Amino acid sequence: MRTPRIWLTLMSVVVLVTTACSSGSSSSAPQGSAPPASTGTGASSVPGSAASGGELLIWADDKRAAALKPLAEQFGSEQGVTVTVEAISKDLIANFKTASGAGTGPDIVIWAHDVVGDLVANGFIDPVTLTDPSVFDPIAIKGMTFGGQLYGIPYNVENIALFRNTDMVPDAPKTMEELVATGKKLVADGKTKNIMSLQVGQAGDAYHIYPLFVSGGGSLFGTTSTGDPDAAVVNVDTADSVAAYTKIQALGEKGDKALKTSIDGTNAIPLFFNKEAPFLISGPWAVADIKKAGTPYDISAIPPFEGGKPAGPFVGVNGFYIASKGKNKTLAQEFATNFATTLPVQVAFYDAEPRPPALTEAFDQVSATNPDMAKFVSAREGGTILPAIPAMGQVWGPFGNAEAAIIRGDEVKKTLDAAAKAIRDGIAKS
């Protein structure tokens, strides 16, 4: 997701990267080729004569750059332009901001949607227009929309779900209490070592704990009249949030020991595929390692607390953004709206990093041979689009630290009061 990428950095998971445009998918789409850009779903096509001789610079991380290069070459050939795809291995968004300010940035940047609010507020990206947004997953369009305006072309959607070892647990638990009881029995019977695997770590992990937090009744922010997160109303220390974390603490190190700070991004997935935990809460990035280990698994929604709200996860969207200070914005718009929206491009990104594609046609194609994609989509029901407001950057650290402290056994209300103060202070200073 990522991600951000803020939340993917928080996850620190191990991702198996397949070769771009490989045969890893059974998709029938020709990899390394694409239909003419004018067949996309964008606003309009730039005539070849207008684009001829132009240059386009695209920045992406290593995986996405590898997936995009052969397709970008095809676009360049069709349009009579030069397309350069550069892999930025570290701090892509920070580097993008710096380079854009200096006039040396790319025309297009590829990243997760959680940065949209910050990039818009600081004038780094331009709006985009699609003639037919309905060809995309609605939640993907929602993720790329800020202030009522579309700012990115989505290519995939991602969220966490519940993995279970089907040899140990044939049926998905209906509640978190049932999950914990099942895990306890398996541990007592000597069949596994841990009740479940959910990464926490010494500094907490706000992204992974969020489904349990909302199921218990907690919330990060209030909402505006349009239903968007309201940074002026921080809810981390409300009575409902305290009640939610009281439930979470009961699963912690002084309670059921289902949640442990010793489980983090380095060992959460291995504990599951090594059969040292019957359950794992993670995302599609975990699948490759689980399959490689030969661990039998199934995927379902994260179960809620008994009598609680749905344990809806954060939902992330990845996409293409047009740099406001790019040197060839007309060509960049053509690439994003009429080329990145095509089936081969969307499938190529799936092949490089399997996630549910944002383009419905691409999702239908890949899910026909990979049922996990539909299971992740089903598991996001009741989820929350990861807030793209700039204030969200002030949440991760304080909220994560509070989570770890509460799981270790610290007093819930005092800890959340301190976290909420830190969040409010951070927002006020930002």
Describe this structure as you would to a colleague:
The protein is an alpha+beta fold and 430 residues long. The chain has 2 domains: 6-13 and 28-159 and 316-385, 3-Layer(aba) Sandwich (D-Maltodextrin-Binding Protein, domain 2), CATH 3.40.190.10; 161-312 and 395-429, 3-Layer(aba) Sandwich (D-Maltodextrin-Binding Protein, domain 2). Helix content is 39%, strand content 15%. It has 17 helices and 14 strands. The chain has helices at residues 6-11, 48-51, 62-79, 92-102, 116-121, 138-143, 176-188, 206-215, 239-250, 268-273, 287-293, 329-338, 343-352, 360-367, 372-379, 396-408, 412-429; strands at 55-60, 82-87, 108-112, 125-126, 145-146, 149-150, 153-158, 161-165, 221-223, 229-234, 279-282, 297-300, 314-323, 384-385. Helix 3 (62-79) packs antiparallel against helix 13 and helix 16 packs antiparallel against helix 17 (412-429). Mean pLDDT is 89; it is low at 1-40 and 43-51.
Mean pLDDT: 89
Distance from first to last alpha carbon: 24 Å
Whole-number radius of gyration? 22 Å
Strand content: 5-15%
Low-confidence stretches: 1-40, 43-51
What is the CATH H-level superfamily of the largest domain? Periplasmic binding protein-like II
Task: Quickly give the CATH architecture of the largest domain.
Answer: 3-Layer(aba) Sandwich
What is the highest CATH level, the class of the largest domain?
A: Alpha Beta
Number of helices: 17
Q: How many domain modules?
A: 2
Taken from the alpha-carbon principal axes, the silhouette is: globular
**Biggest sheet record:** 7 strands, mixed
- The class by helix and strand makeup works out as alpha+beta
CATH topology of the largest domain: D-Maltodextrin-Binding Protein, domain 2
Total E-strand runs: 14
**Fraction of residues in H or I helices:** 25-40%
